[in-house]
Task: inverse folding
């Protein structure tokens, strides 16, 4: 994370993408990449990452009858993130461990901003409060056509509260991801995952080579 993280050499990497884009699959490949270089890497995920934040994740993802407002959803995302940063991400970076997170704040802009329609200024205020200017050093955005990603995700079984949304919701979400990839091009790399895993891994290796080895 740029500012605080400049003190040490450990970097904060995030993996983003729509459902079924291949984030969890690619994490395993990235684990192997860092192991081969003997760079200590902590792998984590959002929402969640600590026991308390994982409880918030369960609240957020389980389908339920009671209406949960968009604002409540947004606040819980940042509540989980604050806990995750304080208890897990920052201590790891400060001790020299790199961190790789399956989703982070770009997902909040995409899902709660693009998908739900929350004003991005509201998200920015919470981002500032919780992250205090900190940003990922590298974000890999795994890009996949929505229908293909959803079909892959559905192959895994029951749908969570987000996976049950309409296609329009996902279109708006993906649009925000793509806008942010352009806006923050210096930290984003877009990886087309509508290809064989070998091709995907090749692109990820190239992006990591450039980032890690310069
Ligand atoms: N390039 C690929 N080609 C074919 N199948 C793939 C590819 N990448 C991932 N898959 C498969 O698609 C499914 C979804 O992948 P994965 O769980 O990694 O996605 P995800 O981005 O983590 O999804 P979610 O957002 O729902 O957590 C898995 O069954 C995985 O094996
Ligand atoms: Mg996943």
Result:
């Amino acid at each position: 994370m740029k500012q605080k993280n400049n003190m040490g050499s450990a970097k904060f990497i995030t993996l983003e993408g729509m459902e079924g884009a291949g984030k969890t699959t690619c994490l395993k490949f990235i684990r192997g990449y860092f192991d081969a270089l003997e760079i200590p890497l902590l792998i984590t995920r959002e929402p969640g990452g600590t026991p308390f934040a994982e409880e918030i994740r369960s609240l957020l993802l389980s389908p339920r009858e009671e209406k949960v407002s968009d604002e409540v959803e947004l606040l819980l995302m940042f509540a989980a993130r604050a806990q995750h940063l304080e208890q897990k991400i920052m201590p790891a970076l400060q001790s020299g461990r790199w961190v790789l997170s399956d989703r982070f704040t770009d997902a909040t802009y995409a899902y709660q901003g693009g998908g739900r329609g929350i004003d991005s200024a509201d998200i920015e205020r919470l981002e500032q409060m919780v992250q205090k200017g900190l940003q990922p050093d590298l974000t890999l955005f795994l890009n996949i056509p929505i229908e293909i990603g959803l079909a892959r995700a559905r192959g895994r079984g029951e749908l969570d509260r987000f996976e049950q949304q309409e296609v329009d919701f996902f279109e708006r979400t993906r649009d925000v991801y793509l806008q942010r990839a352009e806006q923050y091009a210096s930290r984003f790399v877009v990886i087309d995952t509508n290809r064989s895993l070998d091709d995907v891994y090749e692109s990820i290796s190239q992006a990591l080579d450039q980032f890690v080895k310069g």
Remarks:
- Residues 32 and 38 are 10 Å apart (CA to CA).
- Residues 2-213 form a domain with the Rossmann fold fold (CATH 3.40.50.300).
- The mean pLDDT is 94.
- The radius of gyration is 16 Å.
